[in-house]
Amino acid sequence: MPALKPTGYYGTITWLGVVADSTVDLRAKPINEVHAGFAGFEGEWHSGLTRPSCARSVALYPKGTEIRNVRQLSILSAEELALIAAEMGLATVDPAHLGTSMVIEGIPDFSHVPPSSRLQGPSGVTITVDMENRPCTYPGEQIEKDAPGHGRAFKGVAKGRRGVTAWIEREGRLVIGDKLRLFVPDQPAWRGD
After folding, report:
1. What architecture is the 13-185 domain classified under in CATH?
2. CB 3.0–4.6 Å: which of 38, 136, 179, 192 could bond 10 by disulfide?
3. Where are the extended beta strands (E) located within the chain?
């Protein structure tokens, strides 16, 4: 029995983007296709084999410690993005405002797929899910610029819907319209108390 089970779920890529420099602007530039290398997306600020640790890992390392980069990508669900928009009172939320790498459609409860799940594309490109991406205030600031009065709501309504962070396990090309098959770890849920 393989350690990763293929599922019947496929996520269709509906949006791709790269952030040139998040210290200047969090907004992602929409693109139609990208080479996904071992370091991440070409031209992406968050790419690299390593990165400095951030506030999310201070229980493990002092901030700024060089660690493996498993946060190369930010992947969101089109369905969850629509729920976020509706609860914010907006028709849509532009994925570019969230610094998004990819939006996919078709995998239910996408933000909660198990860590170490894989998304595999037709070229063989394989993406490994790190973990659920927790919402922060920065995307809300970007939304506020284009939809005054709505941005502050983002962090609260995006909880449990912010997608996942991920990294490239096998290189390849990704194109809008590609179908990515979901593989999940073949193991029981942890029951730590």
Report:
1. Beta Barrel (2.40)
2. 179
3. 4-18, 29-31, 33-37, 40-41, 50-52, 66-68, 73-77, 102-105, 118-120, 126-132, 164-170, 172-175, 179-185
